Amino acid sequence: MPSDTLTIVIAIGLTAIIMFVFPLMTMADRTDDISQMVVETEVTEFVNNIATVGQLTLDDYDKFVQDISSTGNAMTVEIQVDRSDPNGSKKTTQTNPSAIGTDEYTSEFTSQILRELDANNKIDLKEGDRILVKAYSKDTLATSLNNWFYKLSGNDVYAISAQHAAVVK
Hints:
Layout: H1 2-53, E1 55-57, H2 58-69, E2 76-85, H3 88-91, E3 104-109, H4 110-120, E4 122-124, E5 130-137, H5 141-149, E6 160-167
Antiparallel strand pairs: 1-4, 2-3, 2-5, 5-6
């Protein structure tokens, strides 16, 4: 009789997994797919708007963060601005004649950009400057479920992420 009880407990456990965990994982994966599309779209629109207008404003940044956070995931945003220095190549022409006509770039990263936005409410960019924005989240329901379920396989790289770069026109 004890082995019958064990068999019944195992059968109930497998039934619970089949009836509840797999559908929950499937729904969580679909939610992450939708969130992925939203984040990709928002990142692309945000970067293209900055490249077209030539300006990053605090209001635009706040709206962008609000829009990607509307997916219900805690999103991390990284921004990089490469400002062109057209005079940089003129400083090096005597030591490197092949550098004539090429611009040098100075990079600014998220913390510097956010400080400048807080101080000035905007950052003006000029033609030739480059902007790169990355947004990602590793803490989604699907990620947690998949990592728990597939723990034995060691496959835990599920995440929502998007990046886009553009040159200011």
